[in-house]
Amino acid sequence: MGVSYTICGDEVKKLVKAAMDTHHPTLSEAGVTVHAIFAEQYDEDGQTLPAIKVHGVPAVAKIAITALEDRVRGIADAKLTIDRGQWHGISETRRLALLDHELTHLVLRFDEDGIKLDDIGRPTFKMRQHDWELTGFASVVERHGEA
Known about the structure:
The chain is α+β, with helices and mostly antiparallel strands. It is 33% helix and 27% strand. It has six helices and eleven strands. Strands 1, 2, 3, 6 and 7 form a five-stranded mixed sheet that branches. The protein has a two-stranded antiparallel ribbon with strand order 4-5. α1 (10-23) crosses α5.
């Protein structure tokens, strides 16, 4: 089965706003908009499968900057996709931390006049990469240790 998508409800919208207001006030003050959707995927037996991947690895959520062409069409400044199956299995504290994480990827661009705006007067961004990413194989560490 393929991945299906639905728009997130008010609960998620309120948590996104809370995360932005609390941890990313510059995004909030700039009026940044985020459109959140759920992604879900199931196998033939109805078992939940990972619906989101980032760099080929299953993820609970991902965020992307909306292209100017789509912003002109009225789509929000950023697009947030959340794996519904994983979302419903985590606490509200972890949900807020997840949203904080995703919003941290959005870095406002500034010029001499302040926040740099696009052709339709919306704030522009760049994507912040993670401070660290850990990958590896336990068997290789066992064989070679710190090397």
